[in-house]
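Key idea: predict the complex, not the pieces.
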Amino acid sequence: MGKTMRKTVALIAALTLCFPAFALSATGSSAVVQITGQQSQDSDGDGLADVVEIAAGTNPNSVDTDGNGMDDAYEIYTGLNPNDPSDANQDLDHDGLTNAQEAALNTLPYEMDSDGDGWSDAIEVERGTSPTSADDHPQPTKLGDVDADGTVSAADIQYVINGALGVETAVPANVNGVNGVDSIDVQLVINAALAG
Ligand SMILES: [Ca+2]
Ligand SMILES: [Ca+2]
Ligand SMILES: [Ca+2]
Ligand SMILES: [Ca+2]
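Result:
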């Protein structure tokens, strides 16, 4: 399933949760599900109405149909397969956290920076900040320590070079805070590393 489709499924599922009378309609091969007040029964109390679970092929009496540790609701909202246990150990967004770990953290398995604060979910977990709150993130205490681990090292240089090349990085790589990530930032972090 593509990213857009996953987001569409997630949005429809969220709307269904918020508005039980919301009528889902889709064209083509997608199922058309009409949710009414009477049809909003949720036998297993997982936030997914029975009719939604039946349409998704999950067990309306089990919060985790495939038994992989990730609830049906999370798997459906995030576009994972609630009927395939093997996706628990995958790392869809290659951020170092498995999909099951992301489920436990309530982060997005297809987005390395779930709260959009510039810090990857995995780095936030390492540094002890919240990967689901953009207001909470690591704070580098010295110039050039872009990953906020307390030292300026080769990892910091690599992050900044990647950023200058336009590659998505796990940490904000704009060292001086101006003009995006450019060669000046690379020089600044190299200087900081040489200064120790
Ligand atoms: Ca349910
Ligand atoms: Ca599951
Ligand atoms: Ca991941
Ligand atoms: Ca955060």
